[in-house]
Design goal:
Strand order of the largest sheet: 9-8-7-10-11-14-12-13
Shape: globular
Largest sheet: 8 strands, parallel
CATH architecture of the largest domain: 3-Layer(aba) Sandwich
Radius of gyration: 19 Å
Strand content: 15-25%
Distance between the termini: 8 Å
Number of helices: 12
CATH class of the largest domain: Alpha Beta
Helix content: 25-40%
Number of strands: 15
Structural class: alpha/beta
Number of domains: 2
CATH topology of the largest domain: Rossmann fold
CATH superfamily of the largest domain: NAD(P)-binding Rossmann-like Domain
Length: 319
């Protein structure tokens, strides 16, 4: 009885964005029809940062992600966020694999954005706006490339080096990228926001009918990327209702009593499962992404099964 150990480089070689999107889409569907288990995140808050435990079970596996957030880590030579995933056999509890989940998290978040765009953006979307040009913008871009034929990307970041690096990445991947003001990014078919902001970076007056917005950055209480008036105009779709109300894009408006539970149209899983309709006509749609444990396990499953089949990784007797 051996446990498989997988490094970040091995995870990168094992799972493609195409595979991740398909797996995450199925995870959302299973969750919507009550064929997946996902207890709430558990937070452990300490003086220097916090840890989060994210358990779930679906597709014949059980698992948990242990992920930190330590804002001062770069000063110490460590990444701000690091994560490890433990994949177990639900029939007996044996740890099948322990793997890097830092890359896995970035990939599954991009895949979740891809699923949202598939069901909520216009099928003929060609112009994609990005506010925030860091690591997650790259994974959202990879999802765009997988699902659409983008003609141009319009990008903005307060960090000029980040925006220039993102532009180079887009153009290496065959898509013209223009660095513009924030308002110009909104003149797009799809707008993707990936900032850590606690104040709106997207103004209501910039948003036109027919746009889809992937609001990725808000993942904790107090975070906010969009002016509340935008939420009031839009069809709001969340990954998980309670999690979004607590720490997603809608959390500030909800805490102020402006957006109620009833104002959230659906979960993405409900749309994937056909329980509710996706895009209808020229409406404004918003996907409020907070990141779910079911996304992690769906991608971890792929990595584990491909590694076992291909003889990749190190096997050890942990127990």
């Amino acid at each position: 009885m051996e446990t498989l150990i997988l490094t970040r480089k091995e995870i990168e070689s094992l799972v493609t964005m195409e595979e991740a999107i398909k797996a995450v889409e199925e995870a959302f569907r299973l969750y919507a029809i009550s064929k997946a288990l996902m207890p709430p995140k558990v937070y452990l808050t300490l003086e220097e940062g916090d840890f989060r435990a994210m358990p779930s079970a679906l597709m014949g596996y059980a698992g948990v992600k242990w992920v930190n957030s330590h804002p001062k880590n770069p000063e110490k030579g460590f990444p701000t966020v690091m994560a490890v995933y433990i994949l177990s056999d639900p029939s007996n509890g044996f740890p099948l694999a322990v793997m890097d989940a830092t890359f896995l998290t970035s990939l599954r978040t991009g895949a979740g954005g891809g699923v949202a765009m598939k069901f909520l953006a216009r099928k003929d979307s060609k112009v994609f706006g990005f506010i925030g040009c860091g690591k997650q913008a790259i994974f959202q871009f990879l999802a765009v490339k997988e699902l659409f034929e983008p003609e141009v990307v319009k990008a903005f970041d307060v960090n000029k080096k980040a925006s220039e690096k993102f532009k180079e990445f887009c153009e290496r991947n065959g898509v013209d990228c223009k660095l513009v003001d924030p308002s110009e990014t909104c003149d797009s078919d799809v707008l993707i926001t990936t900032t850590p902001s606690t104040k709106p970076v997207v103004k209501n007056e910039w948003i036109k009918e027919g746009i889809h917005i992937n609001a990725i950055g808000a993942d904790a209480p107090g975070k906010q990327e969009l002016e509340i008036e935008i939420l009031k105009r839009a069809k709001i779709v969340v990954d998980d209702l309670e999690q979004a109300l607590h720490g997603g894009e809608v959390n500030v408006a909800h805490s102020m009593g402006i957006i109620r539970k009833e104002d959230v149209y659906a979960t993405l899983g409900e749309i994937v499962a056909g329980l509710k309709k996706g895009r209808e006509g020229n409406e404004i749609t918003i996907f409020d992404s907070t990141g779910l444990a079911i996304q992690d396990i769906a991608v971890a499953k792929i990595a584990y099964e491909k590694a076992m089949k291909g003889g990749i990784g190190m096997r050890v007797e942990l127990l």
